[in-house]
Amino acid sequence: MPPERPAGAGAASTQRPGPARPAVASTQVQAPRHSGSRASPLYAALDLGTNSCRMLIARPRGAQFEVVDSFSKAVELGTGLKTSGLLSHKPMQRTLQALRICRTKLEHHGVQNMRLVATEACRRARNSRDFIRRAARETGLRLDIITAEEEARLAVVSCASLVSAETEQLLVIDIGGGSTELVWIDLSNVAPEKRRAAILGMHHGSFNRESRPGLPHVVDWISVPLGVATLKDYFREVDDDAARFALMSWYFEEQLEAFAPYRDATAHKGFQIIGTSGTITTVAASYLRLKRYDRNKVDGLVMNSDQVDAVIREYLALGPIGRRQDPRIGRERHTQIMSGAAILTALMRVWPTERMSVADRGLREGLLYAQMSSDGALDLEG
């Protein structure tokens, strides 16, 4: 399956036909058992991906938000999808159970403002519309299957606060379970002090493909249908650990052939990469030698290509058994850390940088920012 790119981006559009969106994207929940504050409404964002079902419940606080509750469960919804083209029974059962827990949390907090979305696995599966209807029937939650472009756009929005005032060329990378999104943004027409706010303002509409004064210009973007789960599946039969890693990395780089804006952009200080994914935050935690994960130390950390490479070489030296036992990687991530590392290595090989900002945030945070911004609930001037 070829990467998805926008029409007019130097290649023919390869938009994949996907399931129709549900008629109602929002979800009504029962009256809460415990009423929340009327003056500070709660918002929820749920991201059902190829690997995980994750949700955040938060309230606006100035230009940011405060997390009230969260949920994360590895449901592995995309298991078997590559060979059958269908969502399988057991993964769907695991996912429905996770959604029931999310429903309970939404009711408990009395959340009325929410966006519940599904991504790559449901975009690809032939039976995803049936699954979405079943989820609505059995859990009361209506999920919206979003396009790859919206997923990429919301990932960019979530990273707004990490954009440096010096950044003129920005590459945002989001490594997911089933796909990887890359968005290249030209900020040279935006005043330095307004660049973060301009990124946050990208939550509505579609990517701005025209260069306009005062607005971010999306030079190019791509959605590669390879994430930590799907890329690993492609090379499952390769037994040698190092060989499998090398094959995964070079195969992913081949998918980037058509995405080549500003290949020489690393020559000046105005270039910044922001990476958001479990792979990248795990690499950052390993670099910091954290015995226990600490979001406050990881989110916003700046690494260079050599530092990223050193951590990944250490992963390779550990081997499968060592990675499984390494507390920095974790039991849930050790089987997929090398496919994610292969993707990251390919990106660093194409665009080596002295400034990759690590973002412990992603689609859920983008969904929250988008809802709150649309409602005027964020104090962007404060």
Describe this entry's structure for a reader.
By secondary structure, the protein is an alpha/beta fold. The chain folds into 2 domains: 104 residues, ATPase, nucleotide binding domain (Nucleotidyltransferase, domain 5); 214 residues, Nucleotidyltransferase, domain 5. It contains 13 helices and 11 strands. Helix 8 crosses helix 12. The longest helix has 21 residues. It is globular and about 55 Å long.
Q: Estimate nothing, just give the exact number of structural domains.
A: 2
Q: If classified by CATH, what would the architecture of the largest domain be?
A: 2-Layer Sandwich
The topology string of helices and strands comes to EEEHHEHHEHEEHEHHEHHEHHEH
Estimate the helix proportion, in percent: 25-40%
